[in-house]
Design brief:
Elements lengths: L1 H13 L2 H8 L3 H15 L4 E3 L4 E3 L1 H26 L6 E8 H6 L1 H11 L3 E8 L1 H9 L5 E5 L8 E14 L14 H5 L3 E3 L5 H13 L6 E3 L3 H9 L5 E4 L4 H6 L3 E3 L6 E9 L6 H11 L1
Parallel strand pairs: 3-4, 3-5, 7-8
Antiparallel strand pairs: 1-2, 5-11, 6-9, 6-10, 6-11
């Protein structure tokens, strides 16, 4: 059954039998046979076929969702058994929110690869909500998220504090005001924020509430890098992690704005689902907390 599920997931993701066959190093008739066997086992069609593409129907969507979970658990079981006798090795699927994943995690992975070259990390970047849901669905071994995310079926453990700063372009008028900036000044600016579900968006909303402000013009962008470039171009101001703006602060392309009475900090947290840990995961968590 696990082979049928693996073939089905590949077909669903490739949306094409021939591409799936190529990916799986199988013949197209063999792929079709696996799909037909799975459809017989569940008692209904799972795919809608056209001349070039195949698409999941409602039943297919249900099977796809659970197949991803089952295959993830199946792989994890093998890693755990293998770990009883071997050194840390194998695939380690890591998810991280943008701020940590794009600006801190690469240095941690480099350290892990130097010490444990047999571990093969696979990285997924998303917002806090997306990463937590992937861990919950057994599609990631571990997640690293920002802010106060809570889910009763996940173990969420803070491990670091992240300081955040309001940033502006050197061309922005706020950059030329001496001393602390007033709350009214930052309220009147165009704010560039992340999308809902992002830990950075949560921190920005916390800032607005703390300062009792309601900026009239807010632009929502789904990328931290896009926000940095937009602020640098003079479109508006934003709130970002000090990790994220480290290089730009040093070279002067972005300026930190010191607003009166504003201090925003948040937590980075590890998110886990399974009570069992492979040696690879244990090694990663040890490096992370160190």
């Amino acid at each position: 059954m696990d082979q049928q599920l693996a073939v089905f997931v590949t077909v669903a993701e490739k949306q094409n039998f021939s591409r799936a066959a190529e990916e799986l190093h199988m013949t197209q008739p063999a792929v079709s046979q696996y799909i037909q066997a799975l459809e017989r086992a569940v008692g209904t069609k799972l795919l809608e076929r056209s001349n070039k593409y195949v698409h999941l129907n409602k039943a297919g969507e249900i099977v796809y969702h659970h197949a991803k979970e089952i295959l993830g658990l199946y792989g994890k079981m093998h890693y755990l058994i293998d770990d009883l006798t071997n050194n840390p090795n194998g695939l380690l699927s890591i998810g991280a929110s943008y701020s940590f994943g794009e600006y801190v995690l690469p240095h941690l992975i480099a350290d892990m690869q130097e010490k444990y070259p047999l571990i093969k990390p696979a990285i997924t970047i998303g917002n806090t909500k997306e990463i937590a849901e992937l861990v919950l669905g057994h599609q990631l071994d571990v997640g690293i998220v920002e802010g106060q995310y809570q889910e009763k079926n996940l173990k969420i453990e803070p491990f670091a504090i992240d300081k955040m700063s309001i940033i502006a372009s050197p061309k922005n008028r706020l950059s030329h005001i001496e001393g602390e900036i007033s709350i009214a000044d930052i309220e009147n600016e165009t704010w560039i924020v992340r999308e809902n579900g992002s830990g950075t968006r949560e921190a920005t909303e916390k800032l607005f509430k703390q300062c009792n402000i309601s900026p009239q013009k807010i632009l929502e962008f789904g990328s931290t890098q896009l926000i940095k470039e937009s602020v640098e171009a003079g479109i508006g101001i934003s709130l970002l992690s000090d990790w994220v703006i480290r290089k730009e602060s040093e070279n002067g392309s972005l300026v930190v704005i010191n607003a009166k009475g504003v201090s925003i900090k948040r937590e980075f947290s590890v998110v886990l689902r399974s009570p069992f840990q492979t040696k690879a995961l244990s090694v990663f968590l040890e490096l992370l907390k160190r």
